[in-house]
Amino acid sequence: MRVLRNGSKELIKEINRFKVLNIVRHQHPISRSEITKQCDLGVSTLSYIMEDLKNQGLIYEVGESSSTGGRRAKLIEFNKDFGSTISVKIEETQILVALTNMDAEILSNRSVPFQKSTSPEVVVDMIETTLKQLLTENNKEITDLLGIGILSSGLVNRHEGSVIRSSMLGWKNVSITDMLKIKFPNAQIFVDNNINGYTLAELEKGEGQENNNFLVVSIGAGLGLSVVIDRKIYYGSTGGAGEFGHTSIVVDGYDCHCGQQGCLEMYASEFYFHNKGEELMHAYPETILNTFQFSEVAEAASEGDPLAKELMHGMAKYLGHGVRNLINTFNPDKIVIAGEGSKYHHQFLDKVKRIANENFFEKVGIKTDLVITRLEDDAWLTGGALLAINHIFQEPIYEQMKAGV
Ligand SMILES: [Zn+2]
């Protein structure tokens, strides 16, 4: 359990300091008067905080804003190069690693492949080697590294920094942050699951710029969900909220790798192409499909392959019903479709929209937008960096968060 710190002068000072720093971080460059407007601190308190942040190299003053008459104001910039973070996404057969500045801008990145079911120890060694290479190539010292954000598939314990279980990686109870902490004792290390990490990028650089309550559905090899309520990701009791792929859509349906039957992931992802494709293959001797990967089925469908088209229609139907269930459950501002499958949205989005739009709220004239993400593939790594950065700059109101910058 997280313990709230006792109220004290020291705590108030720290909260105010982080409040000012975060205003600059999110809105830089920004004028001093705009900061004053937003944080309502006395002139001397604000000056003291600004001076302190400047002395620490977290902010600096730049040029002057365009004239609105009268004296021109200097602008305050956030020092993005105050430190660096490393973002890691662990996939089934590769790690993606990026070096970013403190604004989550990717400076350099690379992927390193590995065999399926590689042990956590070997993957951690790969992360260490790649991380050091990226730092060296970008003329950074190990002391510049302030945070590491790790995104993994499966159920993650964010507080302990461990992967509780990932069937895709074949990992169980892996204390990944402890393993990395031994190698990088000065960096703050955080772990979350892939789709929640991606959603941090949506919050800061994508749909979150206009919406406070939205859902991110990732489709492709599997089916993921992240739930944003009042700009916070909803984690549920043990961090597992969003296992939308394992909600039931067909009673007594296909066996799922989770141990249940009829899970939505078996119908609204690449799994459906494998399941249904093998059943129907014999009826379509003319098909050009050899395997049932999402990209292959989507491309064959666009070329008019009848089996691929049928599979795509079926997948879209189930996804549409799944999305309708989400709308009826959460009444979100918007649903964002992301993931590898979203690249092929021309093949399924219209049908998904048609079905999803026949929902409870539509009957009273409330429309829920369904959009394709506007972020690029590297948003996963941006999100991993934000996982670390957001923690580092969070107001330290809990005992466990005293470290900070
Ligand atoms: Zn399942």
From TrEMBL:
Pfam families: ROK. Transmembrane segments: none annotated. InterPro entries: ATPase_NBD (IPR043129), ROK (IPR000600), WH-like_DNA-bd_sf (IPR036388), WH_DNA-bd_sf (IPR036390). Coiled coil: none annotated. Keywords: Carbohydrate metabolism, Xylose metabolism. Transcriptional repressor of xylose-utilizing enzymes. PANTHER family: BIFUNCTIONAL UDP-N-ACETYLGLUCOSAMINE 2-EPIMERASE_N-ACETYLMANNOSAMINE KINASE (PTHR18964:SF149), ROK (REPRESSOR, ORF, KINASE) FAMILY (PTHR18964). Belongs to the ROK (NagC/XylR) family. This is ROK family protein.
